[in-house]
Amino acid sequence: MHRTRLIELSLFEQIQDKLSRSASKEIPVSPNLLNYNLKYNNIRTQYPVNVYINGELASPSLYSVDYVNGIVNFKTARASTDVIQVDYTYCYVNVYDESMSPSDNNFKYPAVAIYEIDREDVGFELGSSIRENHPRWGIEIWAERGGERNDYTDLLMNLFEDGATLPIIDFNVAFPINSDGTINPLYNPSTQTIAYMFIDSIKYNKGGSLNIGEKPRFLSKILVDMTIVMDSY
Which CATH architecture fits 3-19+93-231? Predict the structure, then answer.
C-alpha cells in the first residue's frame, strides 16, 4: 500500500477518533432476538463494548460485534423477556475520501471529506530510501446546520493545531476490522506505527451555505501542511 494511502487511512483514524462520542446502556432493536441493531454504526474498536443482559454484564463469549454496521450478534437467541443494553463508542460523522462527492446519493451528512492537494518530496543522502515529504491535505466539513459545521470544524482545528504530531500506521500489516465487521485481534497501532505527521500550519474557512439537493448544506474547509519523514514505499 502506497504511503499516500497509509497517510490517508491514518488521518481517517484520527478524525474518526476526534469526532466520536459514547452511548451508555442503549437498548438496541432486534428483529429476531438474535441480532440486535444499535442506533449508530461506525463503532470505534479501541474502546470497550459492554453488553448487559437484564442488568448483568454479559460474557463476550455469548456474542460478537459487527463494528461497521453497529450490530450485536448473539450466538443463540435470547428470550423475549430479556432486556439487552449496550455501552459503546461511535463516530457520529461520516468520513469520505475524494472519490465521494456531496452530490452523490450515498453521501450522508454530517460528513468530513479528506484529500491530498499536493506533495513535495525531498531526498536525503545518495542511496538512502529515507525521504522527507511535505504534503498538503484538504479537509472539508459538511453539515445540515451552520452551528453543527462550526462545532466539527473547531474539533478538527484542535486536532490539527500547529505542532501536533499524529502517527502514521502501516495498514499493510493489519486493519482494525475484519471483512465481516468484527474486530481484528492482529491490529496493533503501537507496533504498526512507522512514522509521524508533524503539523506545520493550518488554515481554515467557514464558508456559507450551498444549495445541494432540497435543502442548503454548510461547508468548512481546512488546509493542513505537514512534514513527514519515512522510508519510501
Answer: 2-Layer Sandwich (3.30)
